[in-house]
Design goal:
The chain has helices spanning 8-40, 73-79, 177-180, and strands at residues 41-45, 60-64, 70-72, 90-92, 102-106, 114-121, 126-130, 133-136, 139-140, 154-158, 163-167, 183-184, 188-197, 203-204. With 215 residues, the protein is of the alpha+beta class. It has a domain at 41-68 and 96-204: Umud Fragment, subunit A (Ribbon). Strands 1, 2, 5, 6, 11, 12, 13 and 14 form an eight-stranded antiparallel sheet that branches. A four-stranded antiparallel sheet has the order 9-8-7-10, with no helix packed on it. Strands 3-4 form a two-stranded antiparallel sheet. The longest helix has 33 residues, at 8-40.
Length: 215
């Protein structure tokens, strides 16, 4: 029994449609991967000397945006009234910003600009700078990453809820919380994670735990 073959032009059209479909699928998959990665990490270029000697101007970093991911439980309660979440506060998937973390955030005075500083005090803590010492809840913070002590006074000031007190490691050459105030939690983009350029600085960023024994 003879089988009639499809015309050559028909086969070419089918092959063309298949090739176009594969290209579109590849483009869509690439876009989805890009968006997923972008939601988790973001690149950042250090500008200025405010974080010396830890970070240097021109250094490129990857910022971990996922580590501080949070959910407002009051908003979830509105959407799911069957669950009693009224007494719950913000839920963090991993943990909130902690003392010693180097964070990238939107500058409160101009959210179009990104700054990078170190968290010194968290909500509810009292911070004071006196005689070249950083005092948090009356206890001096041990900071081996700074080149010099601050030559200015500050406070005492209690950090309000959902806010953080941040300073540059280059204490006397940094525009930070001692000048313009606290950083709202919603302004924080993420935690400095990996330095990838220049190659000589390749490695994890020097975050440093400042949590006291009482926390």
């Amino acid at each position: 029994m003879a089988v009639e073959e499809a015309p050559v032009s028909g086969r070419n059209a089918l092959n063309m449609r298949s090739a176009v479909r594969e290209i579109l699928e590849t483009i869509i998959l690439t876009l989805l991967i890009f968006l997923a990665v972008r939601a988790v990490v973001q690149n950042f270029k250090v500008e200025g000397a405010s974080m010396e000697p830890t970070l240097h101007t021109g250094q490129y970093l990857l910022v971990n945006k996922l580590v501080y991911f949070s959910m407002d439980m009051s908003e979830i309660s509105k959407a799911l009234p069957a669950f009693n979440l009224q007494n719950k506060q913000t839920f963090f998937l991993f943990h909130p910003p902690e003392k010693g973390d180097i964070v990238v955030f939107r500058y409160p005075k101009d959210p179009s600009r990104d700054f990078i500083k170190r968290v010194i005090a968290v909500p509810g803590e009292t911070v004071e700078i006196r005689n070249g010492k950083i005092l948090v809840n009356g206890e001096e913070s041990q900071e081996p990453y700074t080149a010099e002590r601050p030559n200015y006074p500050y406070g005492p000031e209690k950090v309000p809820p959902d806010n953080f007190f941040v300073l540059g490691d280059n204490r006397n050459n940094s525009s930070d919380s001692h000048i313009w105030g606290m950083v709202p939690r919603n302004n924080i983009v993420g935690k400095a994670w990996i330095s990838y350029w220049p190659v000589s600085d390749l490695g994890f960023v020097s975050n440093f735990s400042l949590a006291s024994d009482g926390r």
